[in-house]
Amino acid sequence: MADSPLRRQERKIVMNTYKVTLLRGDGIGPEIVAEAVKVLDAAGKKYGFAVEYTDALMGGCAIDATGVPLPQETIDKCLAADAVLLGAVGGWKWDTLPGNLRPEAGLLGIRGALGLFANLRPAKIYGPLKGACPLRPDIIGDSMDIMVVRELTGGIYFGKRGRETVDGVEAAYDTEYYTTKEVERIARIAFESARKRNKKVHNIDKANVLESSRLWRETVLRVAKDYPDVELQHLYVDNAAMQLVRNPKQFDVMLCSNIFGDILSDEASQVAGSIGMLASASLGEGKRGLYEPIHGSAPDIAGQGIANPLATILSVAMMLRYSLDEMDAADAIEKAVEKVLDDGLRTPDIYTEGCRKIGTVEMGDAVVAALA
Ligand code: IPM
Ligand code: MG
Question: Whose CA is nearest to atom 11 of ligand 1?
Answer without folding.
Answer: 262
